[in-house]
Write a structure and sequence with these properties.
Layout: H1 8-13, E1 45-46, E2 53-56, E3 59-62, E4 64-66, E5 69-76, E6 100-101, H2 120-126, E7 139-144, E8 153-159, H3 178-184, E9 187-191, H4 196-200, H5 204-207, H6 217-232, E10 238-248, H7 250-259, E11 270-274, E12 282-283, H8 284-298, H9 305-310, H10 313-331, E13 343-344, E14 367-372, H11 390-399, E15 400-401, E16 404-405, H12 411-421, H13 427-436, H14 439-448, E17 455-460, H15 479-482, H16 490-493, H17 497-516, E18 536-540, E19 545-548, H18 552-556
Parallel strand pairs: 3-6, 8-9, 8-10, 10-11, 11-14, 12-13, 14-17, 17-18
Antiparallel strand pairs: 1-4, 2-3, 4-5, 5-7, 7-9, 15-16, 18-19
Helix pairs in contact: 8-10, 11-12, 11-13, 12-13
């Protein structure tokens, strides 16, 4: 497996993943370590022996200051997960005596990135950032305006996307926490954790008590990261009593999993789910059966699981995926996302967090649910699909509807319902709307709204002027708006004042939500609490407005 090692100095000069391009970040309200204003031609990076030093309970860390924001990258919040720690709940990192340099991103968890950049259009648009991959992956990044200054800043903890199988805390440039940290005077934390077979191999059925939590160690990693925040974030200028967790796509799924985890109660106080509408959990019996298949594929008995712990990770990763494929083939089980997902019905996640009703663990947690209008545009790199007819759209969604299975015999009814609800949309746009479907997001809100804490719903419809306007409001586009990074993630937005104007309002509303549990006052129009009766949703676009469930009739056709 080949990894893509990015040169630090190249990144400093031209890239946006690590240090970033200075033109992508505002220069107003910046200062040197001594508090002097920075002019456009002044030094913006400060790194040295006594710069950006912070204490953790395990030892001191040293980062750097860039454009007035302290960066701390790759801080260990857990021990390496190899050897005897594989399949085990995260262990505490070993304390260190010397000052630990925290100036580069931590390793990504084992995953398959072979061919990651083979689709050059996808690589261009998402500008993926992957570096070293290893089992020493329990690392987090902190962006903060000041260190241990006694101020209690709200804390945002970001869970990356990629399902439960891929990704890292800086996979896309838009994950950078500098701009929102500066704008909101907040502390931003992003987390790497175990994924795929390393995070969700369930050996509880064959390994007994020792491996009781093996199917959920990837979620326990996130709990450990939140515990680190609780115990250390004051040293970075943050308030452990005001923590917001937020994730997009698979990261939204992680927010939902954490919501159902008793071990996480009290570690966060607000939550936001972006395009995290997929309901996918592993049932206890099913995932334990996969554990049996893994042992069979390895040719070992239940008393020899330690042999799986001693294998090189690439060998185990391949073996586990072969076993999962055989399990799916022989049983006919539909194992989405590679099959390695969080397990419900366990000590870690006792029950599905939102259905049939939302867990009482988060009854006092305000939440935002948001999705993009299209999620994916089928014609982005294929202009011929702009000419597709409704009849052809019906045939397409019979087989596949975005992230979900095809609609089969209901395809015509659903497509025509959307065409009626959105008469100004062309067939290719109807295809994207049907494939995106807000059903899952609305179902989450309808479940959560029965509790006392407020719920807010958004629908992101802004479309970038790229690829001849064929990108539409695609999956992941909205992230950089929430974090005020539209000029950083210019391959999503094109950059400039138009996306920046919306980002100002969206990020401002997120900051308000972090501070108060209410997004109002951040620049958007009055944003009412969501109710199932009216379906209030904030439409995020060049012109932002509230509508009452604009796709309800169309959505109901999918039921």
């Amino acid at each position: 497996m080949k990894t893509n090692r990015r040169n630090f100095f190249q990144t400093l000069g031209a890239g946006t993943a690590g240090i970033g391009i200075s033109s992508a970040f505002p220069k107003s309200a910046m200062s040197t370590p001594s508090g002097q204003a920075i002019e456009d031609d002044e030094q913006v990076l400060f790194v040295g022996d006594n710069i950006a030093l912070a204490d953790t309970e395990y030892g001191k860390v040293k980062g750097y200051i860039l454009r007035g924001i302290n960066y701390f990258l790759g801080i260990p919040y857990g021990a390496p997960t190899s050897g005897k720690n594989r399949f085990m709940p995260p262990q505490k990192p070993k304390p260190w005596d010397d000052v630990l340099p925290a100036v580069w991103w931590g390793n990504s968890t084992p995953q398959n990135i072979e061919g990651q950049y083979s689709n050059v259009y996808s690589a261009f648009v998402d500008h993926w950032n992957y570096d070293d991959i290893s089992e020493d992956c329990l690392r987090l990044n902190v962006f903060t305006p000041e260190i241990a200054d006694g101020k209690e800043r709200p804390v945002l903890v970001w869970f990356h996307g990629g399902g439960f199988t891929a990704g890292n805390g800086i996979e896309q440039d838009g994950y950078n926490g500098e701009n929102i940290s500066r704008k909101g005077d907040i502390v931003f934390v992003s987390v790497n954790h175990r994924l795929g077979p390393m995070g969700f191999s369930n050996f509880a059925g064959v390994g007994g008590d020792k491996f009781a939590n093996s199917g959920n160690v990837g979620i326990l990693d996130l709990v450990a990261a939140l515990e680190w925040v609780r115990d250390n974030i004051e040293n970075f200028g943050g308030d452990p009593g005001n923590v917001t967790i937020m994730g997009q796509s698979g990261g939204g799924g992680k927010v939902k999993a954490i919501a159902g985890t008793p071990k996480a109660k009290g570690l966060f106080h607000k939550a936001a789910v972006l395009s995290g509408f997929i309901r996918l959990w592993g049932e206890k019996d099913t995932t334990e059966k996969v554990g049996e298949y893994i042992l069979r594929e390895a040719g070992i008995t239940k008393n020899e699981i330690d042999k799986l712990q001693q294998m090189p990770w690439r060998e185990y990763y391949a073996l586990a995926n072969r076993a999962m494929a055989k399990f799916a083939e022989e049983t006919g089980a539909q194992m989405g996302m590679g099959g390695f997902v969080p397990v419900v019905g366990t000590e870690v996640i006792p029950e599905e967090p939102f259905f049939p009703e939302t867990t009482s663990l988060i009854e006092d947690i305000p939440m935002i649910f948001s999705s993009t209008t299209e999620e994916m545009s089928p014609s982005r790199t294929n202009p011929e699909l702009e000419k597709i007819t409704l009849v052809e759209v019906i045939e397409q969604v019979k087989v596949r509807a975005g992230f979900e299975a095809g609609l089969g015999d209901k395809a015509e009814e659903v497509v025509m319902a959307y065409a009626k609800a959105f008469p100004d949309k062309r067939p290719v746009e109807i295809w994207a709307l049907v494939s995106a479907s807000r059903r899952g997001n609305v179902a989450l809100a309808d479940s959560k709204v029965k509790q006392k804490a407020p719920v807010y719903m958004a629908w992101f419809g802004w479309q970038p002027p790229l690829f001849n306007n064929r990108m539409r409001a695609f999956h992941c586009l909205d992230i950089c708006f929430w974090f005020d990074n539209t000029d950083v993630m210019y391959t999503h937005t094109g950059g400039g004042k138009r996306p920046r104007a919306l980002a100002e309002k969206v990020s401002g509303s997120l900051i308000q939500f972090m501070n108060t549990g209410d997004p109002n006052g951040g620049g958007l129009p009055e944003w009412p609490r969501y109710t199932s009766e009216n379906g209030e949703v904030m439409i995020l676009n060049d012109v932002c407005e509230v509508k009452n469930d604009p796709d309800r009739k169309a959505r109901m056709a999918m039921s």
